[in-house]
Amino acid sequence: MADTTPQEGAMAVGDGIRTLPFPTELAVGGVGMRIGRMGADRGWRADIPLDRVHRIDFHVVLLFTEGPVRHMVDFTEYEAAAGDLLWIRPGQVHRFSRECVYRGTVLTMQPGFLPRATVEATGLYRYDLPPLLHPGPAQLEALGAALEQLRREYEDTTTLPPSLHAAVLRHELTAFLLRLAHLAASSAPGSRQQSDNTFTLFRDAVEQGFATNHSVSAYADALGYSRRTLVRAVRAATGETPKGFIDKRVVLEAKRLLAHTELPIGRVGAAVGFPDAANFSKFFQLHTGRTPVAFRAELR
């Protein structure tokens, strides 16, 4: 369970979940990214144990050279082997293993380090995609080479002036992320090529509005689509219905708040769009098989 006492430099969210900011002071030249070898002495902050659940406001990509490694991301335990990548996005609740078994390369980056067009092209906020990726031999070789080139550029602070150094890093990072995004999109269950951005707009709208809006028709109207068009787009992209997609996002946030905050059940329900605590309990039990009280008790 997370330490519910906020510490300096960590933002308290929801009366308990701490969101750790990007450690700019540890980055070479203060740029919005950091890359290096994994190890026991590398963390976001020395005074916060990373084997406790926490959030971060930046992206983390781990390329493992040894395994297996177990890592929890949003209540799912993932086991990574050598050659696997783990992509953790801002806001996701996660926890490192207690054992110091992390070996490989770790890349961290602030979302604002890259221009918006690159953010969209690389799917930095595709929370619907799986965090654990299993590249094939050719993909792994290309990703590893791109990451190693990025590391060399990151550590070379003498060849170029700071502004050009940062510009080169953005280009190298974009090249790596485009390869990574292609792997992530092709790894999604039932992934299909999308001919338009209908699902992207819906996904972004749900991320902004799930706490108050659970209506498929309301999202369709707001986006200017018919309900049928939205159903087709979401099913093509995810294999599920728009309602199922919304409900999964609501359940995830409810789990986060139940597990990592001390909010009363009624306030948790209200935070995800259920003013009535009884309705929230019914909804949560329908989707998880447990009451909110039972789910919280299992984790304490």
From TrEMBL:
InterPro entries in alphabetical order: AraC-bd, Homeodomain-like_sf, HTH-like, HTH_AraC
PROSITE patterns linked: HTH_ARAC_FAMILY_2
Any one GO molecular function term: DNA-binding transcription factor activity
Chain ranges of the HTH araC/xylS-type domain: 196-298
UniProt KW keywords: DNA-binding, Transcription, Transcription regulation
Keyword Transcription belongs to the record: yes
Pfam short name (any one): AraC_binding
Cited PANTHER family: ARAC-FAMILY TRANSCRIPTIONAL REGULATOR (PTHR43280), TRANSCRIPTIONAL REGULATORY PROTEIN (PTHR43280:SF32)
Name of the protein this chain belongs to: AraC-like DNA-binding protein
